[in-house]
# Entry
Amino acid sequence: MTSLRTAHWPPISKNLAGLLVAYEEALAWPLIVGSDIVSARRAIALLGDAPDLVLRTTCSAFDAVIVPGGLGSDLLVLADRRDQSLPPIPSLAYGSGEKVLLVAPGTAGPLNGVAGARVESGPGGRIALPPSGGARWDTWPWTPAEPRPVTFTDGACLMPLLRTAMASTPSS
# Structure
C-alpha cells in the first residue's frame, strides 16, 4: 500500500488527507471513527461517505485540557507573552466555542475542574480532531518545518496562567 503523504507540509485545515497523514504518520495517533480504530485510508473513505462522522483520537500521547473559548484564548495569549520559556502549546478550537490545549501526558490532572476545565487523559480519554464538527488547529501539534511531533509542555505550567486568565476574564 502506498503512503498517503502529500507534497504539502504542513497540512492545511481543509486538506483531509494531509491532516490524516499527519495524525497517523507524523504523530502516530490512533484514528477513531465511530467506535473503530481505523487507518488514514479507511478514515478518508468513511468521512467521504458520511462527512458528519466524528474523527477522534485517544489521549495517550498527551493530556487534553478543555476550557471555554474566551478563557482558552486568554490563557494562550498569556502563555505567549508571559512565559517565554514555554514552547508553543498545541491547541484547537471546536465549533462549540471550546478550546483544547494539549500538554504532556499525565500532567494535567490538577487542572481538572479549575474554571470549568475538563481534562481528558490516557487511552480512555478522547478528543475530536479537525476537520470534525468545525474543529480547527490554532497551534499545530507538529513542527512546521518537518513532519514530527512537538514537545508537549507540562500541564502544571498552565495553572498560574489559568488563574491569571480567570482573574482577567469577566464572568457572564
